[in-house]
Amino acid sequence: MLTKTASPTTITLWNGRKIPRLGMGCWAIGGPFFAGDTPLGWGDVDDDESIEAIHRAIELGIRFFDTASNYGAGHSEDVLGRAIGNRDDIVIATKFGFATDPETKQATGAFADEAFIRRSVETSLRRLKRDRLDLLQFHINDFPLEQSDAVFDTLEALRAEGKIDAFGWSTDSPDRAARHAGRRGYVSIQHTMNVFEPVPEMIAVIEGKGLISINRGPLAMGLLTGKFTADKAVGAKDVRGAALDWMVYFKDGRIAPEFAARLDAVRDLLTSGGRTLTQGALAWLWARSPRTLPIPGFRTVAQVEENAGALEKGPLPADVMAGIDAALDRV
């Protein structure tokens, strides 16, 4: 039976705390929410199962959970609050910027004014049952650079007031990532990164500024778990079936052919050393930079155990990393 590993891969946070270099992403456990008829969640969930999975992650040493105020129209934060509450040994990161209606489960817009930010913080504190937010992240990926100054002025003020401990930006733009790196309390960038998207420019900014690289999409939205075949489609309430510009790994709810070919090219290399495909994808991220902190999603205890099991095997060796680069160059 899987147990808590004695010497996991670790990372030191902004507050000096050392934790395993693996978090759990909590988008999926929020359940369904929508923009009109377009699904933005990952389908139906069982809250009791989600809470059991969160508790299992904690048993296995996981100390970092990432959510957002809009996941499941607030339901993800509610579930985390029920499961964890105000435990001071657990770091919870959340995000603001997208408004939702908890009753209708509908997205209602994107906002970044000071009044909205402050309301969002109070709502997140209540849902999460926290005295203070450990890490608050700006969720609007492509927000205008100059206009972001006022947003981060507000975050600095909230930190001074003791409402938040640290803050960051969820963005895939290196320029945006670098913009606020000199501010006290600005500690992290959450961005897409996985075997198929190594984002060297973003990693250069993060390493150069001493930030933490929180990796969303570390399993390419489930593609790197290996459980999808060409004829397997996602459910009707699953965001991976939506016609969204940024949905590159899946088309019409099925694995995109070009990514299926890339997966085939690296499958054997990722599963070296007795790793599952999922564990190899996480190990690739750890080998890519000492600043990475992947946050794979989960809904079940089994998924948590597989993710956490990657810690025992550590980063991929250099020769395997080189082999993956060469294999992808040939596709």
Brief account:
The chain has 331 residues and is an alpha/beta fold. It has helices at residues 47-59, 75-83, 114-128, 148-160, 174-179, 200-209, 257-270, 277-288, 301-309, 318-330; strands spanning 10-12, 18-20, 24-25, 34-35, 38-39, 64-66, 91-96, 98-101, 106-110, 135-138, 167-170, 186-192, 212-216, 250-251, 254-255, 292-294.
Describe this structure in words.
Helix content is 34%, strand content 17%. It has 331 residues and is α/β, with parallel strands linked by helices. The chain is globular. It has helices spanning 47-59, 75-83, 114-128, 148-160, 174-179, 200-209, 257-270, 277-288, 301-309, 318-330; strands at 10-12, 18-20, 24-25, 34-35, 38-39, 64-66, 91-96, 98-101, 106-110, 135-138, 167-170, 186-192, 212-216, 250-251, 254-255, 292-294.
